[in-house]
Amino acid sequence: MNGTAIENFVCVIFNVSFMNCTWHVGRTATEDTQYFLYWRPSEKEDLTECQNYIKDDCGRHTGCQFQNVTIANKDAYFLVNGSRSGQNIQSYEKKILLYRIEKLTPPLNVTVNCTEASHRCNIWWQPPRTSHVKKKSCFKYNIVIENKADAEKNKTTSKTEAIVDNNSYQYESFSSEKRYSVKIRATDGAFCLVSPDWGEWSTPVEFGAQKLTSTSPYVLFLIPGLAAGLTLFLCMTVRAYLKRTSVTVPQPKDPFHELSPMGFQTEDMDLLKKQETEEIISVEEVMECK
User: Quick one: which of 14, 55, 60, 288 has the fewest CB in 10 Å?
Assistant: First the structure.
C-alpha cells in the first residue's frame, strides 16, 4: 500500500544513555493504522520491539523511548512495520551509526578565576559525559563570553567567541566594574567516535560586577548584626568579671567614739565576777590537796 510507510524517521541519543526515535505517519495512513518499531544495536544481536511507545491523539505509535543504550562503532538497525484494517503496510528500514546521533551533554564544572591587576580571567571546565569516549583530546569547544553593560535590562554590549582544543581559556579583557557571562559547548575534535554536531550549551556562569553586587546586601546586613552581638558579649563578660572580683569595703570605726558610763560599769562587774570565780576554784583545789 503506497503512502502507508512512516516518514521523517529521526533518532537522538541524549543524557549519555537515553534515545528517542520519532516519525510521522504515512501520507495515506488512516486512523486505524498502527506502527511497530524493532531494532538491534549490531548484526550479532536479535531484533527487539520498542517497550515504550510515543502516541499521537489517535493512539497511533509515532515514536519510541529507549534507556541504557550503549554506543559502539557499529551500525544499529531499525525496522518500522505496521498494519491497517488487519493488513500489513509498507515497512521502513534504516541503519545508523549511534555515535553520530548523540547530543553531547554540556561541559562540566565551568570555573572562572579573574585577576583585576592583570585584567585576565582563567576559565576551566571538564569534558562532557559520554558512555564510550575517555580521551579529553577527542573534543573541541565553542566558548562564548558576553559583556553585560546593563545588568537590569540584561543588555549585551559585546561578545567574545572562540574555538579551543583544550579544557581552558584565558580571557584578557576583564574589568571588575563590568558583568560577564560565559557558556561552552562541545563537539568532535580529533576524529573520535563523537558526533560532529555541536552539543548542548552549559549553563551560563556569571562573573564580574554583578556577582559582587549580588552578595553585598547580605554582607551589609550581617556586619551590623555581628558588631552588635560582639558588643553585647563583651559587656556581659566585663560585668561578670567585675562581679566576681569586687570586695565589700568595711566601714572604718569612729576613733572619737566615747564609751558610756554604763559601759564602764558593765565591764567592771564582769571583771569582778571573773576574779571571784577564780578564787573559789583555787580554794577548792587547795582543800582537795589536804
Answer: 288
Contact between 48 and 41 (Cβ < 8 Å): no
Are the C-beta atoms of residues 195 and 103 closer than 8 Å to each other? yes
Edge to edge, the sheet with strand 120-126 lists 108-115, 120-126, 168-171
Strand order in the sheet with 18-24: 7-14, 18-24, 61-66, 53-55
Total length of the chain? 290
Strands 205-208 and 179-188: antiparallel
pLDDT digits (tens, 9 = 90+) for 162-185: 999 999 999 998 988 888 999 999
Q: Are 74 and 45 in contact (CB under 8 A)?
A: no
pLDDT tens-digit map of 195-246: 999 999 999 999 987 443 333 343 344 566 677 777 777 777 767 766 766 5
Reported confidence tier of residue 269, pLDDT bands at 50, 70, 90: low
pTM across the whole model: 0.65
Chain segment 72-99, per-residue pLDDT in tens: 778 899 999 999 988 899 999 999 999 9
What b/e string do you get for 188-213 counting C-beta neighbours within 10 Å, with b at 16 or more?
bbeeebbbeeebeebeebbbbbeeee
Amino acid at 272: L
Which grid cell sits at 77?
Answer: 538497525
d(CA 181, CA 196): 26
| Residue tagged 544513555 (cell numbers) | 17
Among candidate residues 167, 154, 153, the one with its CA nearest the CA of residue 202: 167
Residue with cell string 571573773: 274
Residue listed under C-alpha cell 577564780 = 278
Q: How far is residue 100's CA from residue 77's CA, in Å, rounded to a whole number?
A: 14
